[in-house]
Design goal:
binds S-adenosylmethionine; Rossmann fold; about 350 residues; transferase; 7-stranded mixed beta sheet
């Protein structure tokens, strides 16, 4: 299993399977003209030259979503990703196809995106009376506030580092002024609030509240591709804060967790892991936890055609196993978890 220096393992795991590669529509990379205009080119130059790998991971993930556009609806992703990350990701996909790899880079990312989309919609539907708040921690280039109609009654809060949110605003402003993109650059959410904060600092919750977040209101928390970038203590602190909110409002947490072998193999960007998030979260105060793995019925989306793909092999092995009994390779798992809680 190989890992990228920037971004997540979700974009690699090239020995895993994804059915018929010739069916996949990546014939050529077409870059939108808007990417080559100022100020779009300028902000992407800053991302490439001045940002660290942590912040750049936001563009890396957007590139993956842009290149899986035949299954992921995210029209702004290519603009938010930028040329360098699009080209880099495209080359990986091209190599996978040339090598007839069992998996095309990005399939896990595509499945993860669709899982979060579906669970956000289901969570919002489950709240009696609708209109729950949605908080996206480590929002990066997440464009759900522009693409998900289910957010039309929700105030959405995007939390990330100031420079990441500023760059995103610049790109979306440019999209607003472009005839090709303006219809995609209108928010589908009721309102959108950018909250510049480091979630390892003690004041991020206060900053969120200053931006209009109301603790007593029903809330969906979206933690996609963020927890494993934090230290163990920081990740636990964030999870505890969200768990505590269950005592004052109906709360749904949607998060992905890497297990220990995934962290051990990957770059030093990753720290926090949990082999048993379905045990951890109840111990923090969540009352209802549902864990899925890639390939499960709700985390499949028709992208894993071969019944013998390695995701299914992994799912058939006990979760306590850290290495495959057949070949000794690490059992790298990504858990997609929904947890909830309420005052009653
Ligand atoms: C891999 S990206 C995922 C972005 C987005 N959730 C998605 O799935 O497209 C991780 C994001 O977390 C942000 N991030 C990492 N550590 C953070 C921290 N301590 N405080 C705020 N944001 C952070 C990064 O800036 C980056 O945008």
């Amino acid at each position: 299993m190989s890992f990228q220096t920037c971004g997540e393992k979700l974009t690699t795991m090239s020995e895993q399977q994804n059915g018929n590669l010739q069916d996949q529509p990546w014939a050529e990379l077409k870059l939108p003209e808007l990417l080559f205009t100022d100020p779009v080119r300028g902000v992407h130059a800053d991302v490439e030259n001045e940002w660290d790998l942590l912040r750049q991971s936001a563009c890396q993930i957007a590139a993956g979503r842009a290149l899986w556009k035949h299954v992921v609806h995210d029209p702004l992703a290519e603009l938010l990703a930028g040329e360098a990350f699009l080209r880099g990701f495209y080359e990986k996909i091209k190599k996978d196809r040339l090598n007839n790899a069992q998996e095309v880079s990005g399939v896990i990312l595509a499945i993860r995106t669709m899982w979060f989309d579906a669970k956000i919609e289901a969570a919002l539907d489950s709240f009696y009376g609708g209109g729950a708040q949605v908080v996206i921690l480590g929002a990066g280039m997440d464009a759900r506030a522009y693409r998900l109609n289910c957010l039309k009654e929700s105030d959405v809060f995007e939390v990330d580092f100031a420079e990441v949110l500023q760059m995103k605003t610049t790109i979306i402003q440019a999209a607003t002024e472009s005839t090709n993109y303006c219809q995609h650059a209108m928010t589908t959410a009721k309102s959108l609030h950018s909250v510049a904060a480091d979630i390892t600092d003690h004041d991020w919750l206060q900053k969120l509240q200053k931006s209009g977040f109301i603790p007593k209101k029903n809330t969906v928390w979206v933690l996609e591709g963020i927890l494993y970038y934090l230290s163990h203590s920081n990740a636990m602190e964030v999870l505890k804060i969200i768990a505590d909110s269950c005592t004052i409002a109906h709360t749904v947490l949607l998060a992905d967790f890497m297990n220990k072998p995934s962290i051990t193999l990957s770059s030093s960007l990753f720290h926090f892991y949990s082999d048993w998030p379905d045990h951890l979260l109840p111990s923090l105060g969540f009352s209802d936890v549902k864990l899925s793995q890639i390939g499960d019925p709700d985390a499949h989306f028709g992208l894993l055609h071969d019944p013998l793909n390695l995701f299914n092999k992994l799912r058939s092995l006990p979760r306590s196993l850290q290495t495959h009994p057949d070949d000794g390779t690490p059992c790298c798992r990504l858990y997609l978890v929904k947890a909830s809680g309420s005052p009653n």
